[in-house]
Design a protein that fits this description.
3 helices, single chain, mainly alpha
C-alpha cells in the first residue's frame, strides 16, 4: 500500500513539474493565458498529492490503535481521553 501511495505522489508531482516547465518553457510563446492556466492547475496538484501520500489505508496501523504491548498500551496516547473499546 505504501508503494502505491508513493508512486501516486511521485506521478502527481512529476506532472506538476512538467506543467510548470512546459508552461513557461514553450507554451507561453503561443499563449500566455494558457500558460497561466497550466500554472494554476499545477498549483492545485501538490496539496492533492500530499493527501494521496498521507491517506490511511484500511490495513495501516494508526497512531492510537493498540499495539499489543501491554506496557505501551497502558500509556494514554489520547491526552487524557479514554479509548473506546
Amino acid at each position: 500500500m505504501l508503494a502505491r501511495r508513493r508512486r501516486g505522489y511521485f506521478w502527481m508531482m512529476g506532472g506538476c513539474i512538467l506543467l510548470f516547465v512546459s508552461a513557461w518553457g514553450f507554451v507561453r510563446l503561443w499563449s500566455v493565458p494558457a500558460a497561466v492556466a497550466m500554472c494554476v492547475v499545477a498549483m492545485v496538484i501538490p496539496p492533492i498529492a500530499a493527501m494521496v501520500a498521507n491517506r490511511r489505508g484500511p490495513e495501516d496501523r494508526w497512531w492510537d490503535d493498540p499495539s499489543g504491548d501491554p506496557k505501551s498500551d497502558e500509556w494514554d496516547e489520547l491526552d487524557g481521553k479514554k479509548r473506546r473499546p
